[in-house]
Amino acid sequence: MIGNFFNVILVWPITNVLVAIFKSLIFLHIPYALGFSIIVLTVLIRLLLYPLIASQLRASKKMQEVAPHVNKLKDKHKGDAKMLQQETMRLYKEHGVNPAAGCLPLLIQLPIIWALYAVLRQIVSLSSKQAILQINKVVYSSSLKLTGSWDQSFFGLPLGKTPGQLISTIGVLVLLVPILTGVFQFIQSKMMFAKIETQVDKNADKNKEKKEDFASAFQSQSLYIFPVMIAFFSYTFPIGLSLYWNAFTIFGIIQQYQISGLGGLSGLKKK
User: Fold this and answer.
1) Residues 21, 22, 23, 28: is their CA dihedral positive or negative?
2) For the chain, which residues make up each domain, given as ranges?
3) pLDDT of 86-124, one tens digit each?
4) How far apart are CA 13 and CA 115, in angstroms?
5) Model confidence over 235-271: pLDDT tens digits?
6) 74: closest CA among 216, 97, 66, 58?
7) Contact 253, 188 (CB under 8 A)
8) Best CA proximity match to 34, nearest among 111, 103, 106, 119
9) 123 within 8 A of 131, measured Cβ to Cβ
């Protein structure tokens, strides 16, 4: 029941948009139409979600800016949870920070992003004939029905195959797909973190420094571990999904830069 509702509300509409883009590119004689359709659809989804993502990024930036002040309050009101809560809320009010502001946009985005992922996973994992039959069942208009071939290649790479499956035929060059996926993810993740130096109180006591050292170490580890995980998934997932993820991430990097600049990358630039 829930799955069918999810399909009707999100998966099938996204499938129809993808097919409409694909047929438009075919009409314009654009090569590798399916691959470019995935990119165009991903960008359209990002544009649709732009206000929500921008709100989330601004809220995250404000939370990072106010974090040093919150740490001072925690030291000042140790053992007094009620006073700490009151002072923290007062601080948030003074700086115009809403702790929940970043949660609602994220919750709205997730079903749409997951539906896009579900559409692409199904399309690239099926054979050309199976994909056409599956798509023709859910399109809203006969004009959107597919009758010809469903070319699943993109610059010579089959979108339905994984880099792991292609390494024996194409060679190690196919590893550029998961490597680039990990690099793009690292850039975006790095930009999302404020520079650690700005969050350290030079007059902090040793106990506080230890806590910040732990927080910094955890942040640094997650900064590298997550891109490595994404790169591994890209190695085991169909290339079509990596194409979607990379387009999504690159557009996210551009949006992140427009809203909050280089973020954590600014430190690397100075070096």
Assistant:
1) positive
2) 2-270
3) 888 888 888 777 766 656 666 777 788 888 888 888 788
4) 10
5) 998 999 999 999 989 988 998 888 877 777 776 555 5
6) 66
7) yes
8) 119
9) yes
